[in-house]
Design brief:
With about 120 residues, this protein is mainly alpha-helical. It folds into 2 domains: about 1-60, no CATH class; about 65-110. Helices cover about 70% and strands about 0% of the residues. The chain contains 7 helices and no strands. The longest helix is centred in the middle third of the chain and has 19 residues, at about 60-80. It is elongated and about 45 Å long.
Length: about 120
């Protein structure tokens, strides 16, 4: 669903095709350090024009897109592998404390919790 959304909003004009090249680069290299200058170079846009076009078309900045991509991949690895959060962060590329917290919170959401019973509720 997300791919259809991106394709619909990127468009087929010159800027859209440039953004498609950048998104393809991000998809392949999301787990490496990507700087804005490399992305601008791929699109053949100035820094200002690239960030403005990216945000206008995809409704998030390049940095937000890359972080979301890394978190989505980490969530996928958490759900399908036995790797720890730390291992996934190193596997998934440059990982900030914020990103690892998001992944860790997702892991907690995956773990089964006991059903709520009235006895677990308020203390009397």
């Amino acid at each position: 669903m997300k791919g259809a959304f991106v394709a619909e909003h990127v468009g087929q004009d010159i800027a859209g095709r440039a953004l498609e090249r950048v998104l393809a680069l991000i998809d392949v290299r999301y787990n490496h350090r990507l700087d804005i200058d490399a992305l601008c170079s791929e699109a053949h846009f100035s820094r200002f024009h690239f960030i403005r076009t990216f945000r206008t078309r995809l409704f998030e900045t390049p940095h937000q897109y890359i972080v979301r991509k890394r978190i989505d991949k980490a969530r996928e690895l958490l759900a399908t592998s036995d790797m720890s959060v730390t291992e996934i962060c190193f596997e998934d590329g440059p990982c900030s404390a914020w990103e690892s917290t998001k992944v860790s919170n997702f892991r907690e959401a995956l773990e089964p919790r006991p059903l709520y019973t009235p006895a677990m509720g308020r203390k009397t």
